[in-house]
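Structure tokens please, single chain.
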Amino acid sequence: MVKVQLVYTKQCVYCPSTKAMFKDLKKQYKFDYEEIDAMSPEGQKMVAKYSIMSVPTIIVDNRVQWVGVPQKDKVIAVVGK
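Here you go.
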């Protein structure tokens, strides 16, 4: 099963729409999904590990897949397998 991790901040103006898109897709497709606040201790580890400079950053199966809001059809191509 595909594992998706969305790294966000509370100040990010694009993160809420990205979160909403993934939550909506979760209703149609089976994939593991986790939201991680970049300012939390776990988030800080992710920021360091993946050299995250901007949010939202979407990590798929331990690899940075998108930075910024991804196109829905491209997300479906990855999580809809």
